[in-house]
Amino acid sequence: MGETIGFIGGGKMAEALICGILKAGLRGADGLAAVDPDPGRREALASGYGIRVYAQAADFVADCATVILAVKPQVMGPVLAGLKGLLSARHLVISIAAGIPLSFLETNLAGCDCRLVRVMPNTPALVQEAASALSAGRLATGEDLATARRLFDAVGRTVVLPESYLDAVTGLSGSGPAYVFAFIEAMIDAGVKVGLSRADAQLLTLQTVLGSVRLAFSTGLGPAELKAMVTSPGGTTIAGLHVLARAGFGGVVMDAVEAATWRSQELGGGK
Ligand SMILES: NC(=O)c1ccc[n+]([C@@H]2O[C@H](COP(=O)([O-])OP(=O)(O)OC[C@H]3O[C@@H](n4cnc5c(N)ncnc54)[C@H](OP(=O)(O)O)[C@@H]3O)[C@@H](O)[C@H]2O)c1
To answer: Ligand 1 centroid to 210 CA: how many Å?
Structure first.
């Protein structure tokens, strides 16, 4: 079954990962542990998943082979200060904190010699459908990256990239769910505009998005081919697509992803 995976922070993302890891059979409940200051969170994880829970990292980190940092970025500094004396070269440490670069982790854990992997997941992790990008730290081995990848494959799909790409990942898949929801919201309003009830428009829109994504994955076809399949000559779909093209839909989406990527670079100090 492998050695214990310990979560620092037992919030939403940790719970999503715990759920995915158990479902995928990567660990049993006895192979998972979490620390969280909130007794309510500890109780929820212990009773919901049967994992071991702690109020202090010092009580269990030594027993873990893998430690997942799942706290908010704002508290990462003090959390690392508390972990510094507990981590060593035998630990693989995986951070999912948005915007916290490997250099920050390396500086704040200097002397621990632990192997680091940084992961940028997105909110669909909460339903085991995350898009995650993984970047290896200086000391991380190929096996460490494979271990981290197995964990995040349990909650969705993964790519491995140099850290320099993570601002682009943030702009695309990190912020991406918001763009998709903005599109869904507009589609629902459009359905209402052409006479459908809001409830019917919502169901039809959500199922259309879900079905289209499943179709793309299951056929392996690209979006251009799939679009052509619904676009008959002189028909309804090409009339709709013409309006999207004339309004610069593709360019607007590209601008949005580019703006979010730049903002991510800015927030990270232009690294
Ligand atoms: N949610 C997402 O979809 C998403 C996507 C990409 C990346 N991330 C990253 O994932 C990380 C976790 O996000 P989340 O949404 O799971 O946040 P969350 O639900 O707020 O979970 C964080 C948990 O850590 C606890 N905590 C605070 N200080 C701690 C400490 N010193 N030691 C141990 N635990 C501590 C918090 O307790 P209190 O509430 O009592 O402070 C909370 O229960 C963040 O860094 C975020 O950037 C999240």
So the answer is: 28
